[in-house]
Amino acid sequence: MVTRERADAAKNRAKILAAAADIVAERGIEGLAMAEVAAASGVGVGTLYRRFGDRSGLAHALIDASEREFQAAFLTGPPPVGPGAPPADRLRAFLHALVDRTLAQLDLLLMAETTGPFARFGGAYDAHHRHLTVLIAQARPDLDAAFTADALLAPLSANLITHRGAEAARIKAGLDALLDGLLPR
To answer: 6 and 72: one domain?
Structure first.
C-alpha cells in the first residue's frame, strides 16, 4: 500500500526544501543549520528533525530532486544519455552527465555520502550501478559488468573528488580513457 503525503505535509516539505536550497546557495553547506531552515520555512525545529532526521537527511532530500531528473534522463530521455544510442555511446554520455551532476551538488553529496561507512551506497548509487551494469553487459558481455560498473563509479565519489580537487575535464578524460580500453571500437 502506498501512503500519500498529506497536502499540508507536502506544502511544508516544499517550503523546507526551498529554504534549505536558498541557504546552501547563499552560504554553502556549512551554513545549513536546522534551526535556520526551520525559521526560514516557518516550521518548528522538531518538525524538521522528525521529517529529515539531521543535516545529512536534509542534504539527501535536496539531492533527490536533481537525482530524479537525472534518472528520468537516462531512463526515458533522448539519446545518447537516454535510450536509442548504442550502449558504448550511452555509457560515455551517462558518465559525463553524472560527472556534471556530481560536481553541481558536490558539497551536498559530500555530506550525504560521508555520514556512515555505507552512506554512499543504496538509492541513487544502486540505480546508477544497475544502469551501467546493463549497458556494460550489452557492450561487453565478456566482462564482469557489476564489477566494472563499480570501477567506473568509484572516481565519482564526492570525497575522492574533493580530496583530489578534480575538475570536470580531468574526470571525464580519465573515464574516457578507461572506456576506450574497455569498449570495442
So the answer is: no
In eight-state DSSP terms, residue 5 is P
Q: Match 564482469 to its residue by C-alpha cell.
A: 144
* Domain containing residue 21: CATH number: 1.10.10.60
C-beta of residue 179 within 8 angstroms of C-beta of residue 91? yes
Q: Which of 35, 32, 37 is nearest to 15 (CA)?
A: 37
pTM of the model: 0.81
Q: Which of 103, 98, 90, 99 is nearest to 179 (CA)?
A: 90
How many angstroms separate the Cα of 96 from the Cα of each of 1, 37, 50, 80, 172? 37, 33, 36, 11, 6
Residues 93 and 12 in one domain: no
Q: Residue 46 belongs to what domain range?
A: 1-53
Could you give the C-alpha distances from 90 to 75, 139, 141, 147, 179, in angstroms and in order?
Answer: 11, 10, 16, 18, 11
pLDDT tens for each residue of 37-84: 999 999 999 989 999 998 888 888 888 888 999 999 999 999 999 999
For the record, the C-alpha cell of 146 comes out as 557489476
Structural contact between residues 132 and 92, judged by C-beta atoms closer than 8 angstroms: no
Rounded-to-integer distance, Cα 10 and Cα 122, Å: 24
